[in-house]
Amino acid sequence: MMHANKRKKVEENGWKVGNADDFLGLTPEESAYIEMKLALSHSLKENRRKKDLSQVELAKLIKSSQSRVAKMEAGDPGVSIDLLMRALLALGASSEEVGKVISSGKPQAA
Amino acid sequence: MMHANKRKKVEENGWKVGNADDFLGLTPEESAYIEMKLALSHSLKENRRKKDLSQVELAKLIKSSQSRVAKMEAGDPGVSIDLLMRALLALGASSEEVGKVISSGKPQAA
DNA sequence: CGAGTATATGTCATATTCGACATGATGCCA
DNA sequence: TGGCATCATGTCGAATATGACATATACTCG
C-alpha cells in the first residue's frame, strides 16, 4: 500500500511537488505514480475549460460534487486515479488520449 | 459513481466480458473504463510471467497478498486501477508503457 | 497415490475514497 | 458597496478497496 510512511509525509505536504521525482526520497515508482495523477489532474482542468464547463456542471455530468471536482483538479491526494480517468472519459476523452496523458506526465491538450 | 445499477449488474456477472463494449447497455465511457482495467490486468500477468515471478513473489514485492494479485490478474471488479498501475510500476514498467497499455486496450508485451 | 507448488475464490476487519454539505476566498459587474 | 458566480478547503457518514487469511483447485514430480 505504498509505504504509508512516505505516503503520509507526502500527503502532509500536499505534494505540491512541482512535477518532479526530486523532493523526498520517493522511489521511482512512487514518483511515476504521482506524476501520472498530476498529469491527469492537469488534463482534466484543461478539458473542462475547453468545453466551457464550470466545476458544478462537470460535477453534475459525472454525478459528483463541485468540491470533489476541485480536489481532482488540485491533485488532492485523496482522489484516486480511477476517478480522474472516469471524469476524463465522461468529458469525451478517448482511451488513446488518456493513455497519452499517462505516458507523458504533462499537459496534453485534447 | 458509474450508475450503481449497471455497475451492480456487471459485477454480478463478474464481467467476463470477453473484452468488448458489447454486452449490456454500457455507455462508451463505462466500456472504455472496463477495457482499460482488463488491459492492465492482462499486462500485469504478462509482465509478472516475463520476470518468472510467482503471484506470491509479486505480492511480496508490492506489499500485498497472493489472493489480491490473483484478483488483479483476473480483472476482479473489486480491484482499482490505482492498484493495477502501482503493481505494474513496481514490476519496472515505465509511464510510457503503462500509457500504451491504457491507450490500446490489449496485450502490450513489455 | 501423496506431497509440493502455483493459482483461484470467498470472507472479514480495517483503511481509503466517495459524495455531500458548509464555508471561505476571489473576481467581476452594476 | 453589494450581490453573484466560480473555485478552494475542511469535515463527515456511507460506500468501496485493501491486505490477510482460509480454503479450493489444478499441475507437477516422485
- Name of the top-level CATH class of the domain at 43-110 in chain A: Mainly Alpha
Helix share, percent of chain A: 55-70%
Distance between the ends of chain A: 32 Å
Radius of gyration of chain A: 14 Å
Nearest-integer average pLDDT of chain A: 83
CATH topology of the domain at 43-110 in chain A: 434 Repressor (Amino-terminal Domain)
Largest contact between chains: A-B, 29 and 29 residues
Proportion of strand residues of chain A: under 5%
Structural class given helices, strands, pairing of chain A? Answer: mainly alpha
**Using DSSP, what is the number of strands of chain A?**
0
Instruction: Identify the quaternary structure here.
Output: homodimer
Shape of chain A: globular
The H-level CATH homologous superfamily of the domain at 43-110 in chain A, spelled out, is: lambda repressor-like DNA-binding domains
* Count of separate DSSP helical elements of chain A: 6
Structural summary, described in words:
The structure is a homodimer of 110-residue chains. Chain A is an all-alpha fold and 110 residues long. Chain A has a domain of 68 residues: Orthogonal Bundle (434 Repressor (Amino-terminal Domain)), CATH 1.10.260. Chain A contains six helices and no strands. In chain A, helix 2 runs parallel beside helix 5, helix 2 packs across helix 6 and helix 3 packs across helix 4. The longest helix of chain A has 23 residues. The N terminus and C terminus of chain A are likely disordered. Chains A and B meet through helix 2, helix 5 and helix 6 of A and helix 2, helix 5 and helix 6 of B. Chain A binds a DNA duplex (30 and 30 nucleotides) through helix 3 and helix 4.
